[in-house]
Amino acid sequence: MAQNSRRDLTTTARARLAALREKKPPTKAAQIRALWPDIKAALDGGHTLQSVCECLEADGINVDTRSLAVYVSRIRRASAGNTGLRSLPSPNGEQFEREDTQPVTEASTSKAKQSADPLANIRDRQGKRSGFDYRPELADPKELI
User: Fold this and answer.
1) Are residues 36 and 69 in the same domain?
2) What confidence score (pLDDT) does residue 50 get?
3) 8 A C-beta contact, residue 61 and residue 19
4) Cα–Cα distance measured from residue 22 to residue 91, given in angstroms and rounded to the nearest whole number
5) Distance of alpha carbon 15 from alpha carbon 102, whole angstroms
6) How high is the pLDDT of residue 139?
7) Are residues 89 and 129 in the same domain?
8) What is the count of structural domains for the chain?
9) Helices (H), the chain
10) Which residues contact 96 (CB under 8 A, 6 or more apart)?
11) Range of the domain at 50
12) 74-88 per-position pLDDT tens digit
């Protein structure tokens, strides 16, 4: 009996999520993200943000050029941060290929680890220090007098 009720819950949940996927997203940012592959293709094809805004307004998404520029820059920044991903799912369930800006290598990960250390520059200077290096904690008091 418990198995049947669990199956019923999953089927109803899947049906509701499928119906939700068909609805228009509630925010402009989500609508722009849903249309991002098409917007990116238009921008890569040489169209301006103004012409993309006009197309979006014809479909009922009222966004000005400045706001669209902000949305586009945020999406591009987020996709640049995920360089290890090859393809990303779009909201309608399809996969679209993403061009990698930089392959992830050991050198790039080691640079990221170094840049995360706030004292890395001090450690580098201490290692390259030349000249007289007096450390009182290492000195023997009998030899000093």
Assistant:
1) yes
2) 93
3) no
4) 10
5) 39
6) 77
7) no
8) 2
9) 2-22, 28-34, 36-44, 49-58, 65-81, 106-116, 120-127, 141-144
10) 37, 87, 88, 90
11) 2-97
12) 999 988 876 554 555
